Amino acid sequence: MKVVIVGGFGVGKTTMVGSVSEIRPLTTEETMTQAGVGVDDNSGVETKTATTVAMDFGRISITEQLVLYLFGTPGQERFWFLWNGLFEGALGAVVLVDTRRLEVSFDVIGRLEERGVPFVVAVNTFPDAPHHPVEALRTALDLPDEVPMVDCDARLRASSRDVLLTLMHYLHSLALPTA
């Protein structure tokens, strides 16, 4: 089973894949250079020194026959063309958001909705991030009530696992026949 972790630049996608993967994750983190100045918006994450330029990959074995493959996408818009291949065959996605920079999530969610990819929203709880009520965030992100939204700390394995479980439960509910 394939799941994609998406979100804007610097929201914690690489961290999430790394925290929950049973294998050492494959990452394509590269040092940020002057080439990105004026191209990439690093507002709110000015101290970030590396960025994903292709994808992150991790794995969780549920059983011998059932394996969850995790693909983290690059967050910078100039690398979004890579999303096309990463979404092929994906069951669903986790949209990781940062309340300090909620606006970087708007286009991400819009792209998933356009593609018809089911997703859940995980609010990464950065230590200095403001906390907002779920309904306020749901309204700001223009999310339908049925899309699950959960808090998480992408650095913690259990928290990232719980986000993935929320996605699996949501996908299961979508597959159930309606009466």
Automatic annotation (TrEMBL):
GO terms for molecular function: ATP binding; GTP binding; hydrolase activity. InterPro entries: Gliding_Motility_GTPase (IPR052705), Gpn (IPR004130), P-loop_NTPase (IPR027417). The keyword ATP-binding applies. Coiled coil: none annotated. Pfam families: ATP_bind_1. Keywords: ATP-binding, GTP-binding, Hydrolase, Nucleotide-binding. Gene3D superfamilies: P-loop containing nucleotide triphosphate hydrolases. Belongs to the GPN-loop GTPase family. This is ATP-binding protein. It comes from Streptomyces scopuliridis RB72.
